[in-house]
Amino acid sequence: MARGRRGHRGDHGDHAGHDPEVFRRRFWLSLLLALPVVFFSEQVRAWLGLPPPPAGAAWVGPVLGTALYFYGGAPFLRGALAEFRARRPGMMALVALAISVAYLYSLAVSLGLPGRPFYWELATLIVVMLLGHWLEMKSVGQARRALEALAELLPTVAHREEAGGVRDVPANALREGDVLRVLPGEQIPADGVVLEGRTTVNEAFLTGESRPVPKGPGDEVVAGAINHEGAIRVRVVRVGEATALFQILRLVREAEASRGRYQRLADRAAATLFYLAVAAAATALLVWLALGRPLDFALAMAVTTLVIACPHALGLAIPLVNVNATALAARNGVLIRNREAFERAHAVRVVAFDKTGTLTEGHFALARLATAPGVDPDEALALAAALEVQSRHPLAEAVVAAARERDLRLPKPREVRAVPGQGVEGAIAGRRYRVGRPEWAREAGLELGPVAAALAEADRRGMSAVVLFDDERVLAVFALADRVRPSARRAVARLLALGVEPVMITGDAEAVAREVAGELGIRRFYARVLPGEKARIVRELKAAGPVAFVGDGINDAPALVEADLGVAIGAGTHVAIESADVVLVEDDPEDVPRLLLLARATYRKMIENLLWATGYNLVAIPLAAGAAYPLGIVLPPAVGALFMSLSTVAVALNALALRRLRLD
Questions:
Q1: Catalytic residue (choose from 178, 191, 267, 354)
Q2: Strand segments (E) across 486-605
Q3: Tens digits of residue pLDDT in 600-642
Q4: pLDDT digits (tens, 9 = 90+) for 43-89
Q5: Is 155-242 in CATH node 2.70.150.10?
Q6: Is 471 a catalytic residue?
Q7: Which fold would CATH assign to domain 330-360+484-598?
Q8: In angstroms, rounded to a whole number, what is the distance separating the alpha carbons of residues 300 and 309?
Q9: Which CATH number fits domain 362-483: 3.40.50.620, 3.40.1180.10, 2.30.260.10, 3.40.1110.10?
């Protein structure tokens, strides 16, 4: 089923254009107005064993009831008008009809018509419905800003080569064919081809590939990628909306536009109940008149039917469950941003994960260290870390971090310099060492010798490798890999136990994907997947049923939007979070099975509440209309109102029971 990700549209017009603050203010002020009405009601005082209200209190019902009707009931009256204009009467029409009949009949009684007024029923009905709509609107996710966040990734200034040298110009002024200079640490402002220089760039936002990608003359670079250590000259080939980054933006827009309206169960039930209640009330009025009963009796039966049919319980059935589910989720590190998508999560049977930063930690760690004969591993690691300590390259940082974890004492190198696209070299204790790409050692005329097997194994497993060598031989090979999150293993095991299939979708190489999938116990995975393909794969998976997608990168935004349930890792990019329905605040993949458990329990509570609320009306409406009169059973308005209140209490208690759910 398609999602209405932007909040309520179309079918649920009762909320269109409303701010939760509107309902909040109306609720509290209406509650203050309702308290005296309830307190001075004859029926309520009789139930509480209080003496009849003082004579001077007769004005409380008509005056405050009028204020409540026009102030507290205004949103429902306007909503009903919109529903009638659209020829789709539902919840708002039923509420408006009930409060209008109750108010007008009560006012007529106050002006002399025989009968009993319904002021306290009117007051509680308005207050409870305002509370329900306020809670409901609070649970709706705020409008997303994913598209704007994507556009903001591009740098605003570019260094363009001109006749007089290099000049800084606005990035949006670039044209195809311009030649740019991109310095280390800067983002590339447009798609282009490298003309001069060697470096590595971080394209993880586009491909999901965690390792830096070497770039040299003739290689393509994309807008938004981060240049690591070398200055490069780039000829612009695509600008503006033609860049790869804006193609992702287009995919997000298309996925958003493909969504239809989400029709909620409570709205459908309210629409059916509207026609049922009106038919029952009209039938009761006509039948009792035809049987010769007085007009006031027949009218009282009709009014009682409409009042008892008014969906106190139905109006709270879904919002109360959602509020409790949201609170329970928050206590477990899960932020629900889109209520409608969360409601569908109970049916999810496939969870597709991005790899980098989701199932893995998103940064490199030393996985294996192999040394040549006679070389101490700790000594080799200390030498490599001493050279790499000043580098900001991700692989260098991993080597340094490994040395620090082992508390190694690093020697002090001299004449250290970075060789763009190769690595770092420097002198230690009078000898020159180099650490960097294995190809660098081969270009220096050195054989890999004893470490060749370790290098081949690292390549087979999809690991990134750097070598340490001097002028005579290769001393060590360091195999570096993105570390799998410990909680990811438990998350996969719990999903399988729940009958949910975990799937991995990644831009990484086949070998990397196979290694991670095997370590986690994931049977199905997709490797070397580009952003557009991620959304396509999710679409294909959806053919067999609802699919959740879990990711953290900008490249995940289209897939997050395309999925029935988009789940963002909390430490991920702003774009991923803004495109998601749910955010895992603690960056814990194990929160995914917790989320699905909560969604299933929430769905059960919703169905129970809806069955109770509608079932109550199916029984109470005929009784209120006098169907059991031949058996001597007549439901007075006060008793009908009491039953109505009890049904609301039952729904509320059932929703509160959700808080006792243990997600672990």
A1: 354
A2: 501-505, 524-526, 547-551, 565-569, 582-584
A3: 998 888 888 878 777 777 777 787 777 777 777 766 554 655 5
A4: 778 777 888 888 777 888 899 999 999 999 998 898 889 888 887 77
A5: yes
A6: no
A7: Rossmann fold (3.40.50)
A8: 14
A9: 3.40.1110.10
